[in-house]
Design goal:
single chain, alpha/beta, Rossmann fold, four-stranded parallel sheet, two-stranded parallel sheet, 9 helices, 6 strands, 35% helix
């Protein structure tokens, strides 16, 4: 597994020992390709997870740079819980005669998750959050904020209320993000405060609650959060 935000030494050593499956973020992968540490000439299967995010305008250029390094003959697999029409147009420009397999309706939520809505004024959101967290049934929770600044403010609110927590967002180092995730998995903290950086690919066993402090603008983001 290779990703940015940490030194590459251990990742390079693992690659040099030989791998059958390489899991990578686009930026670090391109960096290692440019250093001639990684070559993609023998790749048989190219998989893009969270394809809608990978193909949005923030990542599409990096993805295209990776694709030109791949063999012409290969299998492409794209996975995502959501896929907007605009992203499908991009995907179809990369794929050749793709087959679409859908296991649930697009942008649908999971039936096993109970959802509740609390209507409250913006000025009362802080007190509502603290009131909800008085419930002992909330063993562990992720609280989602729209912005990095907002996540830090929520973490400060929880600190002042003596509720153990950690915040993860784009301004946090990779090491700090990993430490925060480990802390909630190990139940050393009760609340993880996060932006949408934690809405995808995060696996926390027995997470009891997700609290949407700031409602996202897109329904797809809500689906990924919960």
């Amino acid at each position: 597994m290779i990703f940015g935000g940490v030194k590459q030494h251990h990742q390079v050593k693992a690659i040099q020992r030989g791998v059958d499956i390489l899991i990578a973020t686009p930026g670090r992968l391109l960096d290692l390709i440019n250093q001639k540490i990684v070559t993609l000439g023998q790749v048989q299967i190219f998989t893009l997870d969270e394809a809608d995010r990978m193909l949005d305008m923030g990542f599409i250029n990096d993805i295209r740079k990776v694709i030109v390094k791949l063999p012409m003959t290969r299998q492409n697999l794209f996975f995502s819980a959501t896929m907007a029409d605009s992203i499908m147009d991009l995907a179809n420009g990369i794929l050749k005669n793709p087959i679409s397999i859908e296991v649930t309706p697009n942008s649908s939520t999971v039936e096993t998750i109970d959802q509740s809505l609390y209507t409250v004024t913006k000025s009362d959101k802080k007190q509502l959050l603290l009131h909800l967290l008085k419930d002992p049934k909330i063993k562990t929770a992720i609280v989602f904020s729209k912005t990095k600044h907002g996540a830090n403010k929520i973490a400060k609110i929880l600190d002042d209320a003596n509720i153990s927590n950690a915040a993860i967002h784009g301004n946090k180092s990779q090491a700090a993000r990993q430490a925060a995730l480990k802390a909630i998995k190990d139940k050393k903290i009760r609340v993880l405060v996060a932006t949408d950086v934690a809405a995808r690919g995060i696996d926390i066993n027995l997470l009891s609650h997700v609290i949407i402090y700031d409602v996202p603008l897109e329904p797809e983001s809500y689906v990924h959060r919960i």
